[in-house]
Specification:
- With about 200 residues, the chain is of the alpha+beta class.
- It contains 4 helices and 4 strands, in the order H-H-E-H-E-E-H-E.
- It has a 4-stranded antiparallel β-sheet with strand order 2-3-1-4.
- Strand 2 and strand 3 form a beta hairpin.
- The chain is rod-shaped and about 155 Å long.
- The chain starts with a helix and ends with a strand.
- The N terminus is likely disordered.
Length: about 200
Amino acid sequence: MHDMHKHNDVLIMTKRQTSCVVACLLFALFMSFMVGYFLGTKHATEEFIAQMQQDLIAEQLLASACIHPTEKKAIPVSATVPISSSDTTQQQQQQHAALLATNTQEKELVAEIASEYAAELIGFGKREAAQQFINRIAKDMDIELELRTRQSKHQKGKTVTWYQVVTKRYKDKKELDTIVKMIAKKESLHNINIVTCTQA
């Protein structure tokens, strides 16, 4: 009986030891799981932070590469002055007026470049008289003139043919003005009309 009781005590101690060992193993496994979990979470967090830093650096490099070297530093939004609708409308009107003025100047410049000038000097009723005038100016002043045949209607409806002496075409209007003044002084001419002749 005593031996059997000792044997049972040994078995009972063995079960307790087994339970303790199992509990220790489970606790060790649990601790290992928790340590691994935290280590994995820490590693993932570090990778996420590193990736965010790399993305931020890449965005900064891209932004710096897109800015022109001569571009001025951007003005902070807080430093900008709000523009009212009336100010915007006034600015648009000023820009429109400036654009119209520029276009007008360009058109005038193109017209001036593409145009020539001639002076209508004097008219004669006979062709011979007009030709004599042309010959005299050519001889005395060495200026080339041209003869134009014109037709006008009389008040009574009759068509009258007459002959007009004009200068040749000049691109330089100032040069033409000088020539006209010389002829007018020599021949006592008045009210000479200078016309613009658009090039064909």
